[in-house]
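To: structure desk
From: M.T.
Subject: fold request, one chain
Message: Could you run this one when you get a chance? Sequence is below, nothing fancy, just the single chain.
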Amino acid sequence: MAGDGAGKRGARRAQLAWLATLSEASAGALGQLCSTMLLYPLDTSKTRVQASLEDGRGGGDGGDGSHGRRGGSAESQSGRESWKEWYLSLYTGIETKALQTVVSQFLFFYAYEYIKKRVKASGRKIQAFDNVLIGMVAGSVNVLFTQPLDTYVTMKQSGALKKKAKGGQEAKTLGELYAALGPSLLLSVNPGLQYAIFDQVKSFLLKKQKRGAALTAQQAFLLGAFSKCVATVVTYPAIRGKVVCQSSAGAKYTGLAHAMRKIVELDGPAGLYKGLPQQLTKTVLSAAIGLMLKEKISQAERTFAVLLLKTFSFSMSPIAA
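Reply: Done. Structure tokens follow.
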């Protein structure tokens, strides 16, 4: 009897752990999806600025952003229609971006929470550096699965696909869709730093509050903005190099180091930080809104899950969980 009771308690703990991990992953995906949809025009604008190099010296449009500014020809429409066309171009690739956001954020948060729970179960106390490593591993898992979607979105935003279409080419080979895989894996340090900072400061703040307390929406927003700002500034030169590798001129570069050398050659050392204001505006706001929503969605999901467990007291086996 005692053994049966212990087994049921173990099954219940396993179910709760799985639900907690699933809750964090789904909350992270939903929160970031809402944030991405809200700020997508900023995302497109910053990508065009970052991608502009040899074939975009006069501006960051990379092809698509030229709508409404070449209206001297007989084919140009009225100013009102041109502005409408330009505005709609800012939403180029939004459907693919939505899919990429949901898949990548779910994978990242699921892997991040799963690895953290495994480390804690081993009896090891998680330190700040451990959080960075866990974030890097989770980010690498995410990149390996979602890199083709990320490359496709970047190419649509920067106008690379339109240029290939005009030249009778299509960016559909696996090699092209995995362009800048190395830089993307390297940049997994970005979410590693971001969530390490977020979790460490969150733990510090919650220790000062009563047991079971959670971050307020304002705290989550400010902490998300701060953590993403630090991670972005530290890794931005590599971010710019990665976008250039994924742009229409990406095939010219043998890798991240080559792209970064070319950026310095053409735009000087300051070129490595070209587009940083746009990147900070978009990513910091996106991370802040996304993490704020994630915290609130996760709290609601956990409350709902506990209510379900109490009401139905799961009859599922640990294997089904």
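Reply (cont.): The longest helix spans residues 2-51. Let me know if you need anything else for the meeting.
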